[in-house]
Amino acid sequence: MAENKKLVSEITPMDEDFAQWYTDIVKKAELIEYTSVKGCMVIRPYAYAIWENIQRILDGMFKATGHENVCMPMFIPESLLQKEKDHVEGFAPEVAWVTMGGSEKLEDRLCVRPTSETLFCEHYANIVHSYRDLPKLYNQWVSVVRWEKTTRPFLRSREFLWQEGHTIHATAEEAIEETERMLNVYAQFCEEALAMPVVKGRKTDSDKFAGAEATYAIEALMHDGKALQAGTSHYFGDGFAKAFDILYTNKENKQVYPHQTSWGVTTRLIGAIIMTHGDDSGLVLPPAVAPIQVVIVPAAQHKPGVLEKCSEVKDILSKQFRVKLDDSDNSAGWKFSEYEMKGVPVRVELGPRDIEAGQCVVVTRHNREKTFVKLDEIETVIAEKLREVHDGLYNKALENREKRTYACKSIDEINKALAENGDGFVKAMWCGDEACEDKVKELTGVGSRCIPFEQDNISDTCVCCGKPAKQMVYWGKAY
Amino acid sequence: MAENKKLVSEITPMDEDFAQWYTDIVKKAELIEYTSVKGCMVIRPYAYAIWENIQRILDGMFKATGHENVCMPMFIPESLLQKEKDHVEGFAPEVAWVTMGGSEKLEDRLCVRPTSETLFCEHYANIVHSYRDLPKLYNQWVSVVRWEKTTRPFLRSREFLWQEGHTIHATAEEAIEETERMLNVYAQFCEEALAMPVVKGRKTDSDKFAGAEATYAIEALMHDGKALQAGTSHYFGDGFAKAFDILYTNKENKQVYPHQTSWGVTTRLIGAIIMTHGDDSGLVLPPAVAPIQVVIVPAAQHKPGVLEKCSEVKDILSKQFRVKLDDSDNSAGWKFSEYEMKGVPVRVELGPRDIEAGQCVVVTRHNREKTFVKLDEIETVIAEKLREVHDGLYNKALENREKRTYACKSIDEINKALAENGDGFVKAMWCGDEACEDKVKELTGVGSRCIPFEQDNISDTCVCCGKPAKQMVYWGKAY
To answer: What is the pLDDT of residues A350-407, one digit of tens each?
Structure first.
């Protein structure tokens, strides 16, 4: 027995060292493993299963809004990358270059895609000729590479998995509508599948995507009060179309430029889940994306009838839920810790005395609440419990955000709020001047996160220069 | 009306020029589009949807046999690739090398994975310590890069999509069993989902995967009589474990080497589907992987009630099948050609007179058979028709293979059979000597495809040297 007990070691408490807590979790919940490729990681089965659930749900939402999946090459010739000036300036410094194929030196270096606007544009130039060819609503699920200097699992790595939607439309209006539609899809997904409240807004010009006319984003607040950009949606106008000579014949038989968008979310969402819901016992997973939604842990499993009953319950629950029965010879206590570390939303405990009483114990991960449940009501109760976990996680995250959102009218107020209450979102007015944006960051440490669609009028003047304010901005420290 | 008619142009007849027929289909059925990255292609929505169906079915089969998905980095440091001697010799000549990250020159070049044995081995060395950690049954769905000189869409490209399974086991027996299990999974998938009969067998030593002890393969015969390797499964013994220092403590508390396998299929399967089932009107898709299983084409769709009835039928059929109703203003004739080109297995025609009679016309793509079907029996009949298409495709492919399989006792017989009947599988005995294998190819043009599990005793002597034969081999020209 002794040798089979792999101890779930302690993890660093989050209030002691949040960064170390995060690192402990990604290792001990077996989400990632480091490799000899600096800045790249193995996404282990448990984390990949979370990603598969994210993919499945989002892909369904994309298809329901009329999108089709495609797959572009992973390489972009340097000459193609250079066609759109802002875009190449934004990305060239952080790409990986393929210079040799076999033993042959390449004439035109190939970059490993950091994003695929240029490839989609080349393709659209080939296949879009008439207004009848529009819109094209394409998406791809691939990995991309950005040569980052400092990396952290899921949050910033040299290679990451993502989806990138790239669409092309007859008019600016349609393209803008698409940009907003996909931002809403992301927000809905984060709230309904990840139990993570988000702020929807527009990025300031200094924070736009390279080549975009406007970048929209959803911003979430992590447990430690730092902001995390969870998804972006870009409106390109006809800038890329002009750079790549994409022209179509409109209904009036004129050659005109179409309008484009792109939008993406990444494996970073797994980092967001960890930092939004996790606690000192490990991961806490929102039920919609949890690889295991219910774990059944037998008590005194060697006693006759216990494993049989557990199997029966598993079969019943498996019709609706993702269920694991752990009948290994590890102790029940070890199993409790293990599945708490793995963040399984609901645990079912079932032993000889429970069986006699025709019941089991159901424990919800986020609040450790225990309920005795009649076995013949188990399906209904588990469905309720999973909803409870989802709602509990969402409300806790929302409370954390509200507690950590500070409306401030001056630089002093910002500094005071952060010093007294810790990191969080600062809501403060802005004149729209980039110099003020920079100065706020310099004086307080928080940068602009987004100009939210839902505006509050905190005051009439810019928090920095005192001139008339144009908008309220969410400011924060960002992952 | 005129401008909306995109004409489905003629394609080259397959008997006139099979290679050109293939190229015409991949373009005109909108499967791929070329890019400025030589040897790489855009997999367009229709082809990608076929791949998604392949993925979904295979992934289900992998999970049902206990496998989990992971994701490794796309890069392999040169020093890691070099750890297994045969492996690096096999792959180094055809890999793409990343030598720069941003503006910084890399100390250790990174190759873009041509296959990921080395990465899985590094990972296994990190996570496998005890017999309790075994087996690990991992798979990943990714793309890989091989710097091929001549390329053809789906069949041979510099980047292709695939899955690669990598497993590690306590004993040789278990690993060999896994190798065979996955070959059987592939064969079952090809026959049941792709309607494509395959020969299961072992590769000769000269044709083994770089680093493998044994390579098993499934071989299919295309319409033109050329063979296509549709999937491979490799047994590695403990060779990689030794090269990568993977050791585990067995039940007797001794440090021993585990045994490994790998297995994969690629987007090449789409090429196999085209060349197995396609005809002079275009693609013909096996129902299990067809993105559209049933297309509904209205007749006289401007007449009152027609589109409504078509919609009704669509709603009924969509519960069970993947259905498209084409209510565009293209002519019915244009639509017939379009969906024949796209290989949609079943077409439903529905016009005012049909509606009056409470019926519709159902046409199966592979044999153009027309059936009048009562609308209230439509669900049952479509299910039957889809089975008919599957069986019809399978039987036709099997007939083609049987017609083109030649049992030969001498080099002369081989040359005669090929000259008289065209390319195909040659069944002939072999002494096991590599020199004879080479000589058969030199004298007849056909190389060894595999040593089939199902052996026939064509004669007692080697077809080449006349010495005692060890095995019967399938020989053929290969894609």
So the answer is: 999 999 999 999 999 999 999 999 999 999 999 999 999 999 999 999 999 999 999 9
Predicted pLDDT of residue B7: 47
Closest Cα of chain B to A109: distance in Å?
10
| B148 touches A at CB < 8 Å | no
pLDDT, mean of residues B423-450: 98
A66-70 average pLDDT score: 98
Residues B462 and B408 sit within 8 Å (Cβ to Cβ): no
| Residue range B259-296, pLDDT digits in tens | 999 999 999 999 999 999 999 999 999 999 999 999 99
Taking alpha carbons only, the member of B304, B295, B312 closest to residue B362 is B295
Q: Tell me, what's the pLDDT at B309?
A: 97
Q: Which of A30, A41, A42, A105 to mutate to test the interface with B (most CBs of B within 10 A)?
A: A42
Closest CA to A229 of A257, A195, A202: A202
Q: Which one-letter amino acid corresponds to residue A167?
A: T
C-alpha torsion A235→A236→A238→A241, nearest 10: -130
User: Of residues A103 and A214, which shows the higher confidence score?
Assistant: A214
Do residues A477 and A227 touch, judged by C-beta distance below 8 A?
yes
Mean pLDDT of B81-87: 89
Q: Are strands A75-77 and B214-221 parallel, antiparallel or unpaired?
A: unpaired
Contacts of A56 (CB under 8 A, 6+ apart): none
The single-letter DSSP state of residue B375 is G
Sign of torsion, CA A455 A460 A466 A467? positive
Selection from A203, A210, A260, A259 nearest residue A83 by Cα: A210
Q: Is B102 within 8 Å of A35 when comparing Cβ atoms? A: no
What CA–CA distance (Å, rounded) separates B244 from A24?
27
- Structural domains for chain B: 18-277 (3.30.930.10), 292-391 (3.40.50.800), 405-476 (3.30.110.30)
**Mean pLDDT estimate for chain B:** 96
- Measured distance CA(A44)–CA(B187) in Å, rounded: 28
Residue A79: its chain B contacts at CB < 8 A?
A: 36
Q: Give how far Cα A32 sits from Cα of A40, A292, B72, B210, B467, Å.
A: 10, 17, 10, 29, 56
CB of A319 closer than 8 Å to CB of A288: no
Of the candidates A69, A102, A143, the beta carbon closest to that of B52 is on: A69
CA distance A478 to A425: 10
